[in-house]
């Protein structure tokens, strides 16, 4: 079977990365929204109040199931996908860049564009290839991550 041109191979890798990233991000969005709500909720800030268990302002979210019920009750099912579009705008380029750069680096390291030949790379070269691909993907998608976090952390009323 004939190998695709480098440009066609890059497009295949980018498309595969974008699609897989989009699907996995959409499926896991409810858990991500709950996680972000826990991260941004206000907690008592003095250690003395925590030691005395003087929690005059109790946390809004105290457990995963309780948080899920509250989000559903206050915002409906769509609340679990709040910020998902900006997240997709972050994840899809991230995984597209990561897949493409990873394949290109492994091609350079192995001297072959065939994926079967990439399996024979040393663990060190595989690690470095993945690290460089992850760095490139992070730099390319960071602005979208910031926007996603801002939107996903909003409850009701919206800010």
Automatic annotation (TrEMBL):
GO terms for cellular component: membrane. GO terms for biological process: transmembrane transport. Its main location: membrane. The keyword Nucleus does not apply. Keywords: Membrane, Repeat, Transmembrane, Transport. Belongs to the mitochondrial carrier (TC 2.A.29) family. It is found in: Membrane. Coiled coil: none annotated. It is a multi-pass membrane protein. InterPro entries: MCP, MCP_dom_sf, MCP_transmembrane. This is Mitochondrial thiamine diphosphate carrier 2-like. Solcar repeats lie at residues 8-108.
């Amino acid at each position: 079977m004939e190998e695709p041109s480098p440009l066609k191979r890059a497009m295949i890798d980018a498309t595969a990365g974008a699609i897989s990233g989009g699907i996995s991000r959409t499926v896991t969005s409810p858990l991500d929204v709950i996680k972000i709500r826990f991260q941004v909720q206000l907690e008592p800030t003095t250690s003395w109040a925590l030691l005395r268990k003087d929690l005059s302002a109790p946390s809004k979210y105290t457990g995963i199931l309780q948080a899920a019920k509250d989000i559903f009750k206050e915002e409906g099912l769509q609340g679990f996908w709040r910020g998902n579009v900006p997240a997709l705008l972050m994840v899809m380029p991230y995984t597209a860049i990561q897949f493409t750069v990873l394949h290109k680096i492994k091609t350079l390291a192995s001297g072959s564009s065939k994926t079967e030949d990439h399996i024979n790379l040393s663990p060190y070269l595989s690690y470095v290839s993945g690290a460089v691909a992850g760095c490139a993907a992070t730099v390319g998608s960071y602005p979208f991550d910031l926007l996603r976090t801002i939107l996903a952390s909003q409850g009701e009323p919206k800010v």
